[in-house]
């Protein structure tokens, strides 16, 4: 930097115009304010310099300076070229300014750059990111030449908008795919809750000899492993990530931490949390606190919560969900109330619906059902199905018919299609001998054509995750599976009869 300042001083003394060189070098550092000051001294900057400065602001901000420079360029008689629009479209996407993007699109067409590959790809990407997917598709369809980033931009757009069928169709049509293409699909499936598809695609990717999953791929597939309980695959991914040096990436560490916590290996999650050490961010703390809370390790979760505060890490709303949940699982009503009140009093965080839901759970588990009901009644927002469902679950545990009926009534209005609520209320009636209530509920369900969805389970075998329901015959080897089950059942029955005979002999002695 000092050398560049010396060159600048030399040019000023000797009247040499080195501004283009200096601005380019300053932007590489980057020292954008200094470069901008030099730029302002040039009476007629070239389109090259305008583009360089616009590109710098699009990468480092402030983003709005890009539009100011574009306006200045046009007013100064300097015609933008295709490279100008590439950066401007990116900024429009970053700031979520669809109208600005459409105005720039019109300028692009007017200046004759509509079919420039890089500008058109940036345009597709912009429309996809601001949610104007039909516009992105029209631009894509008009393009005579498309490269891999063009396809990737549209696939990511479809995935972001939840249209995984559209994304999959494009993916299958792609002439050439790279790691970004595969990652966009894996991430899209995972973010849209289609975890089995995400994991299946990742396994297909692993078989590709010329492709290596990168850090983004790993952080995209690990949530799928966590949700499916695919521990074996997750462990294999950890081995791969360590071998590739991906543990330097905090996103990879946090994703792996979450995977182990959700798969029941809280010991492994703790080990990774400790390994992250001083690199921990808020996500690391939140994941670990939540993991400990869910596994019933309430004291450890609260200890970690207080350690986080003592280290000066400011909590967010997710942190308090984990902390209150820890109190709920540990039966610490007073502590939970204290933490709940501290949200606004100490940290200026307004409790959200999920925090009130956690408090209802805390009070419900402790048998304080009336307090839980009163809290729902006095919430500053409209209670949702989670809050009423939590109360209904607590009523089921404590066999409180009166409040269960109130909760079920609200749930029938919020989610009349959910058979689970009727089943829980029916069980409460049955447990308290209210068989008339059971009959009435069954009649209601039958009249409304509400059917209980079949329960299903996942099993992981040979790095594959299988889903099955009662009497399932969808697996290609179901006949072998049922044969083994029958053999196992016969052996268990024979063993039971032998044990019963031995017991009978001893009882007769």
What descriptive keywords fit this protein?
single chain; 509 residues; mainly alpha; two-stranded antiparallel sheet
Description:
- The chain has 509 residues and is mostly helical.
- The chain has 28 helices and 2 strands.
- The chain has helices spanning 2-14, 19-28, 32-40, 47-60, 64-75, 82-94, 98-110, 117-129, 133-142, 148-160, 164-173, 179-191, 195-206, 215-228, 231-243, 250-262, 266-276, 282-294, 298-310, 317-330, 333-347, 353-365, 369-378, 385-398, 401-414, 419-431, 435-447, 478-508; strands at residues 456-461, 464-469.
- The protein has a two-stranded antiparallel ribbon with strand order 1-2.
- A hairpin with a 2-residue loop joins strand 1 and strand 2.
- Residues 12-17 have low confidence and may be disordered.
């Amino acid at each position: 930097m000092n050398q560049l300042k010396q060159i600048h001083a030399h040019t000023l003394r000797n009247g040499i115009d080195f501004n283009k060189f200096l601005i380019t070098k300053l932007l590489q550092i980057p020292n954008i304010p200094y470069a901008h000051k030099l730029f302002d001294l040039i009476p007629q900057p070239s389109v090259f310099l305008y583009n360089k400065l616009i590109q710098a602001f699009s990468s480092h901000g402030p983003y709005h300076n890009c539009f100011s420079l574009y306006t200045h360029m046009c007013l100064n008689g300097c015609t933008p070229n295709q490279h100008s629009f590439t950066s401007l479209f990116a900024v429009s996407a970053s700031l979520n300014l669809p109208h600005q993007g459409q105005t720039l699109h019109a300028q692009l067409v007017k200046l004759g750059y509509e079919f420039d590959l890089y500008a058109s790809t940036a345009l597709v990407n912009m429309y996809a990111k601001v949610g104007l997917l039909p516009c992105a598709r029209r631009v894509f369809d008009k393009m005579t030449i498309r490269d891999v980033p063009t396809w990737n931009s549209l696939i990511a757009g479809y995935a972001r908008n939840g249209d995984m069928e559209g994304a999959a169709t494009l993916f299958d049509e792609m002439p050439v795919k790279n790691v970004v293409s595969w990652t966009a699909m894996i991430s899209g499936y995972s973010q849209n809750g289609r975890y089995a598809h995400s994991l299946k695609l990742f396994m297909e990717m692993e078989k590709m000899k010329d492709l290596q999953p990168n850090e983004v791929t790993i952080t995209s597939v690990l949530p799928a492993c966590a949700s499916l309980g695919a521990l074996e695959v997750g462990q294999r991914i950890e081995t791969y990530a360590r071998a590739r040096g991906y543990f330097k990436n905090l996103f990879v560490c946090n994703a792996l931490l979450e995977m182990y916590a959700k798969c029941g290996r809280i010991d492994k999650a703790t080990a990774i949390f400790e390994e992250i050490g001083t690199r921990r961010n808020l996500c690391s703390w939140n994941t670990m606190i939540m993991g400990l809370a869910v596994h019933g390790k309430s004291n450890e979760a609260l200890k970690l919560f207080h350690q986080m505060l003592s280290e000066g890490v400011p909590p967010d709303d997710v942190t308090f969900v984990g902390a209150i949940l820890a109190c709920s699982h540990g039966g610490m009503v007073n502590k939970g109330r204290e933490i709940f009140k501290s949200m606004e009093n100490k940290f200026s965080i307004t409790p959200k619906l999920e925090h009130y839901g956690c408090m209802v759970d805390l009070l419900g588990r402790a048998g304080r059902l009336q307090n839980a009901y009163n809290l729902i009644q006095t919430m500053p927002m409209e209670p949702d199905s989670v809050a009423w469902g939590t109360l209904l679950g607590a009523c089921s545990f404590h066999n409180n018919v009166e409040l269960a009926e109130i909760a079920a009534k609200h749930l029938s209005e919020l989610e009349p299609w959910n058979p689970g609520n009727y089943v829980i209320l029916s069980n409460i009636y049955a447990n308290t001998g209210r068989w008339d209530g059971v009959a009435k509920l069954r009649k209601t369900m039958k009249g409304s054509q509400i059917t209980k969805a079949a329960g299903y389970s996942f099993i992981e075998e040979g790095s594959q995750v299988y889903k099955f329901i009662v009497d399932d015959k969808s697996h290609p080897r179901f006949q072998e599976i049922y044969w083994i089950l029958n053999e196992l059942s016969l052996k268990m029955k024979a063993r039971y009869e032998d044990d019963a005979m031995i017991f009978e002999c001893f009882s007769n002695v």
